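Protein modeling request. Please complete all fields; requests missing the sequence field cannot be processed.
Requester role: graduate student
Desired output: 3D structure, token encoding
Chains: 1
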Amino acid sequence: MPLRQQDSEARRAIIREWDDWARNNPADSKSAAGCVLFFVHLQQEKSGLLDFHSTSDKWQDKWQMVHGWLRREGRVKD
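Delivered output (78 residues):
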């Protein structure tokens, strides 16, 4: 699968998971720490969603990608 297509599918899966998580955790999703709490949720409960290519496989890079996707989609504002 081409890298760009893989990233696009990973992005869509992360956004769908955010929407589900935010529906079940409305107070957390609106808090300043909501994005961090969501990333911890991904690490602990949905680690397969973090199995996408990044510039390195460091969690920091994956965090930056997930945070950027959520910001671009208007899910978080920080």
